[in-house]
Amino acid sequence: MVPGTATATGDGVTISGPSPAVYPLGTSTVTYAATDSSGDSVSCQTTITVVDTTPPVITCPAPITAEATGNESAFVVPGSATAFDIAGPVTITGPAAGSYPLGTTTVTYSATDQSGNRSSCSSSIAVVDTTPPSITCPAPITAEATGNESAFVVPGSATAFDIAGPVTITGPAAGSYPLGTTTVTYSATDQSGNRSSCSSSIAVVDTTPPSITCPAPITAEATSFAGAVVAPGAASASDIAGPVTVAGPSGAATYPLGTTTLTYTATDQSGNQSSCTATITVVDTTPPSISCPAAVTVEATSVAGAFVTPGAATASDIAGPVTITGPAAGTYPLGTTSTTYTATDFVGNTNSCHSSITVHDTTAPSITITTPAHTVYAIGQMVNASYSCSDAGSGVASCTGTVASGTSIDTSSAGTKSFTVTAVDNVGNTSHQTVTYEVGYNICTLYDSTRAVQSGATIPIKLEICDAAGNDLSSAGIMLTAIGVTQLSTSISGPVMASGNANPDNNFRFAGPGYIYNLSTQGLSTGTYALAFTISGDPTIHTVYFQVK
Fold this sequence. Notes:
The protein is mainly beta and 549 residues long. The protein is built from no helices and 50 strands.
């Protein structure tokens, strides 16, 4: 505000007063002073009064719409108004928070400034019910069909609630419901016309299987390896809820040996099934046929008999495989053994036949002669016979030789002798074996065979013929004849040469005791030589040695 201007008279007067400023509500006293040129001053006062006659400006909150929360009302906190006054603070009053009824309520707000000026505005609180009621449907119902593909069902009751008031519920009626699932709808409507609905279901099911009756069991005789051809009977079935389809074996077919279980199944229109079983038993009461192998005859290979692998029987059966049992491979005794073969078919029917195994001994026993051997024994030498007999079949009944085994053979004189053993087995087969042996003289030298003579010299070969004990058997009646000379290192043989006329025809001269042969070494080179000679009655060739230098 700009205060007014004071006036004053006098010479050179200066006036001072209040400056333009903001003055508060109410009356303010202001002072003016006038001063002349002499410095004299005077003053005066006046007042400035500031008044507030303008009401404040108020703005109401926007209208509120609230959803009813119960008892047909809603708890609402109204909005706040705003106000302004140019002159100072403002006090605002308005509606309190509380329960407001369904519908629209007008609410008033007032603003009062410090001077008592007042202004008002209005808003509204609308409580509405737009929420549909809540509804809970009954649980689905499953009912068994009782006939005519349906069932009588009383549907369950739905429950409903609305926060703002009572609710009306509508739903399906009791009645006949068809096979299958029927969707049923329940509705709830509140007093404001809000509606909600839910669905449940009524399932009419057919879980009862149909009844079925199987045909009687069948027994048939097998007619081939595969079994028998049989035509199964037919099953019958029924169902309370509708038609039934029966499945099972149909038409004649070949059934194997044994019991075959047949299954019949009845299926209703809902897929329920029931089954029953019947049997077809194919039996085999006919024994198999069997043919035995030919009788076997074999040679005994030991006293126990012979190892024989019996022949195989053959068998057949119209209804299936056959197992054949018979004698095992093994040792069969001498004589005839009856053998039995048995054929058993698949179901245990049996049939048998008989054959035989004959073990005979037609082989003569064998003989082994160890002593005498085919060699030369000395006259008078003690040699015991040693021999044995064996028979692979029936065994040895007797084994006899020229002398008994273990006793002395004949070595009493020089010459070739024979020794015979005869063996007889227990069935009379006989064998003989003969060996020859030779008996000769031993040579007892009467000269030094290690003493060498000069080539061309005469060596008197002096010797006696002796028995095994060294006894001299020399006599004029026994002739010794030289037959050849052999150099040992070269194996070169040549004719023998006598020195002088004492040994005509290369015969040794009986000198009593013993014999002498004047051997010429003419033409013989250095070495060891053998002089070969024979003795009358002695089948062997004898040898003595000499040295030439």
